[in-house]
Amino acid sequence: NDIQTDSNRNNNLAKDIGSKKLRSGAQTVKNNLKKKSMDPTHPTKQSKIIFLDVDEVLNSAFDVDPNEEIVPKHVKILKQIVDETGAEIVVHSSWKYAPEMLEKLSHALAEFDLCIRDVVPNILKGEIGREYEILLWLREHFSNPEKECNYVVLDDWDLSSHFGHRMIQTWEPERRAFGLDEVFAKRACEILNKTP
Asked: Along the 196 residues of the chain, how does pLDDT read in single tens digits?
């Protein structure tokens, strides 16, 4: 069935990334892109991308079970965004450094008929620098990302200095919003459905 197909596709991607997890630098970027049947010089078919973090996006310390690594209610909202926009998912979370975590994510997404399209290259290990991995992915796939692609960055870190209005920080204590919710989803859909 479709869910099993998505799960298998995601698992293959997880294994592909995991086999290279100890490499670093520019060569890793080139290898990752070449191995994933993605032409690095051309945009994806839909040209709508969701750059996805996991912690405090698909889970939260304030959820009913704070130890639940991926919370279905947040994945359901991600599914809503994909359904309303046709966007593809590119993972930039630190989960990409651990094959078993990436596989866990792929299974959780497949339960909602969602598929990981790609993973940003591993340049810098850790939270600091993820914005550069996203920017490099964009440059590798689009000659002019701002005009050729609609994208949003879902992350609990504030990366707005690099992504401006495309940055959706899923952490708003003033309205007790922790993790992906309907308000964040509405913002994402508005951005993704605009003409670049």
From this structure: 544 454 455 445 544 444 443 333 333 333 443 333 344 444 454 489 999 999 999 998 887 776 789 999 999 999 999 999 999 999 999 999 899 999 999 999 999 999 999 999 988 666 568 899 999 999 999 999 988 999 999 999 999 999 999 999 998 888 888 899 999 999 999 999 997 6
The model's pTM is 0.77
Q: How far apart are CA 59 and CA 20, in angstroms?
A: 27
Residue pair 181/78 in contact by the 8 Å Cβ criterion: no
Cβ atoms of residues 91 and 120 within 8 Å: yes
The number of residues in the chain equals: 196
Kind of pairing, strands 48-52 and 88-91?
parallel
Phi, psi of 124 (to 5 degrees): -120, 130
All residues at 6 or more sequence positions from 115 whose CB lies less than 8 Å from its CB, including other chains = 6, 9, 10, 89, 109
